[in-house]
Design a protein that fits this description.
alpha+beta, 10 helices, 38% helix, 12 strands, twelve-stranded mixed β-sheet, 29% strand, Aminopeptidase, 296 residues
Length: 296
Amino acid sequence: MKLIPKDTIDRARWDSLVLKDANASIYCQSLFLDHLAENWMLLINEDYSCGIPIPFTVRLGVKGIYTPNFIRTVDWVGLTENNRLETIAQAESILKNNFKLASLRTLKNHFSTSSDEWVFQELEGTIKLNSQAKRSCKKFQKSDLTIELVELNTVLPIVSEELMEKVVSLRTIDIQRFESFLESFPEAKMKVFGTKRKDEILGGLIFIEWKNTFHYVKGGARKEAKDQGAMYAMMEFAIDYGLSKGLKIDFGGSNVKGVRQFNAAFGGVDVPYFEWKWDNSPFWFKTLKALKNKRN
């Protein structure tokens, strides 16, 4: 295996491998990484048969592996039981020789020191509304609001504004990367469900269809629409749309209590994923990082 710099990656070859591997994550596509990662490399076999993207940052000259915002996991593609142990051992050696620290979230527990700390939610088969979701959807039905498929650009400003308000760790550059990614994604694979009052857009949910799954990206709504149950009603509408096409629903997921409860209100069940951490950075760098975390 070898590390290939971003500018020399054969993207067509890599994306073809991601598409062919039934277990490959949507987040491994080069489009996600090009837009959402500060930097990334590819750790790959010579014949492009097995590899993993490696997003990384450089801070004060120290290179560290990380999981970018809006990318849930970064996973192996083309890994099999026949090559797993040898590949992982080789990969860990290469990565630790090239990077001083890592905090990489993965769907499967392949790395030697990964821990089960995260969950996302999935739904397959039948929607199951809890009492809160039922009440909110009924409230919406009695309002003067409607739901329909809309253009991304009508909803994106509302979603971005809400993200900046709710997620304190996000910077302006993160939102810019997020918007650039969505604006570059093929329209045929994206569905945007909007809440409207006459011709005014008051909110929306963004979904991406990929392989057999309908992935929830992000959503948001104005307060007046939320008060009428719009977030619940839009999610029910979108889930019904996805299930009618035989797709599994991926809620994107969160350990945040409120988001997790919202996803569970439709029958979403927890799926664990993992985080691979290690830190061989210099003492001075660890000290500065600890001070920064304390201030935050």
